Amino acid sequence: MQGPNPPRPAARRKPEARLPETRETIGALIAAWREKAPIVGLSMAVVCDGELAWAGGYGSADREAGALATPETTYAIGSRTRPYTALAALRAVAVRQLDLDAPIRARLPELRSGGALADADACACGPSPTAR
To answer: pLDDT tens, 84-95?
Structure first.
């Protein structure tokens, strides 16, 4: 398995490798993971003390175009974040930071009128993929 793709010039400041062993350790873990799973490409970042310590890309961002994955690669993730959003909402409910029966505008006053979400009476319908 190959290591990280060569860095590509980026518009923003290059991340500094603050932790010397980080790149090697992550590279070895990702190489082992990619041998076991059908992962075409991925990008990852390590944040230490609130600052970017390292970022890298592995594999392909677009196999057909021959584009390599980089720290700046964006990926289409579709609905894969729905379970995490639901979990975050339910955790907020558990600590009384969110009321599912309150009008949505109580938490998001910037929503404009006219849309189904903005005009909803409450967010109790939740982030279910079948909620309408």
So the answer is: 888 998 999 999
